[in-house]
């Protein structure tokens, strides 16, 4: 079973395995049609397509939710079943952002109790770089029975974040790039800054120049420098909308630091209430 990362070589050896499901998670916040368009043009053989906005998120409720609320469990389970995901199936998710979007699917499956899911290390670019096969053929998956077994302990809500953000026994980690965390530049959300009390570890810090994750030892050291004495179980991770924070959670698990929680609403939900405080650097 592969539970965090998988290499292109390993995946290519299982392209015809009926007990493996590949999911293309390519997406762009700047172009909502991008993912479907590039998937239609070319994708890994047998891969189904997951749309970040429609499949991996629920509709936004203005003034209440963040930009990518968690999907309804029943609806999500039905999608997984339609894609051919069920007990004993190995799932592999990929994107073209070093795993930053694919990790959302990874976390959602783990949240609903499916352990056999991994992100393709190096993603689309790594696959193409090795001249491995692609296709434009759209697969017709064989549906399976997906029984969701939710793990509510894997996430926290906004009230819990408010309660722990000033608690020295917990660590709240912002996964966005430093310039956004500091409030010096905000290209997406209407308010710049971070949740007061949060520290910063950008998810991209774990990606090497080749688009693959750095070593587990390097990742672990980065996390320990941020967490100090705080155990993973008392760590809460967020980002702009609960997507790339999942990548940070993936890196923690890959480095042997299991048990951290996701704040799915993240920054975009936090600022939906103007009464909530905003932190900025300096």
The chain-level mean pLDDT equals 95
**Strand line-up of the largest beta sheet:** 1-5-4-2-3
Share of β-strand residues: 5-15%
Rg to the nearest angstrom? Answer: 18 Å
Distance between the termini: 46 Å
In the residues, how many domains can be counted?
A: 2
The CATH topology name of the largest domain reads: Oxidized Rhodanese, domain 1
- What CATH architecture of the largest domain would you give? 3-Layer(aba) Sandwich
- The chain-level structural class is alpha/beta
How is this structure best described in words?
The chain has 282 residues and is an alpha/beta fold. It folds into 2 domains: 5-150, Oxidized Rhodanese, domain 1; 153-270, 3-Layer(aba) Sandwich (Oxidized Rhodanese, domain 1), CATH 3.40.250.10. Helices cover 28% and strands 11% of the residues. Helix 4 (102-111) packs across helix 9. The longest helix has 12 residues, at 216-227. The chain is globular, with a radius of gyration of 18 Å. The chain starts with a strand and ends in a 12-residue tail after the last helix.
Q: In brief, what are we looking at here?
A:
By secondary structure, the protein is α/β, with parallel strands linked by helices. The chain has ten helices and nine strands.
Keywords:
282 residues; alpha/beta; Oxidized Rhodanese, domain 1; 2 domains; 4-stranded parallel β-sheet
């Amino acid at each position: 079973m592969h539970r965090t990362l998988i290499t292109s070589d390993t995946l290519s050896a299982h392209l015809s395995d009926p007990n493996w499901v590949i999911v293309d998670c390519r997406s762009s916040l700047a172009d909502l049609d991008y993912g479907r368009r590039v998937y239609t043009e070319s994708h890994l053989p047998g891969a189904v397509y997951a749309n970040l906005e429609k499949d991996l998120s629920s509709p936004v409720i203005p003034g209440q939710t963040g930009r990518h609320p968690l999907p309804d469990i029943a609806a999500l389970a039905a999608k997984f079943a339609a894609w051919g995901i069920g007990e004993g199936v190995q799932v592999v998710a990929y994107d073209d952002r070093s795993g930053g979007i694919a990790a959302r699917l990874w976390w959602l499956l783990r949240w609903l109790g499916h352990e056999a899911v991994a992100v393709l290390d190096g993603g689309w670019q790594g696959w193409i770089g090795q001249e491995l096969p692609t296709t434009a053929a759209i697969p017709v998956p064989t549906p399976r029975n997906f029984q969701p077994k939710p793990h509510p302990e894997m996430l926290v809500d906004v009230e819990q974040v408010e309660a722990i953000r000033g608690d020295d026994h917990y660590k709240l980690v912002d996964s966005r790039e430093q310039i956004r965390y500091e409030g010096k530049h905000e290209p997406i959300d209407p308010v710049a800054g971070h949740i007061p009390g949060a520290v910063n570890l950008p998810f991209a810090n774990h990606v090497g120049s080749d688009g693959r994750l750095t070593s587990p030892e390097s990742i672990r050291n980065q996390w320990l420098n941020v967490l100090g004495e705080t155990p993973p179980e008392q760590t809460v991770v967020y980002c702009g909308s609960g997507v790339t924070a999942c990548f940070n959670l993936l890196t923690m698990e890959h480095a042997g630091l299991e048990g951290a929680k996701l704040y799915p609403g993240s920054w975009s939900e936090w600022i939906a209430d103007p009464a909530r405080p905003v932190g900025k650097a300096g």
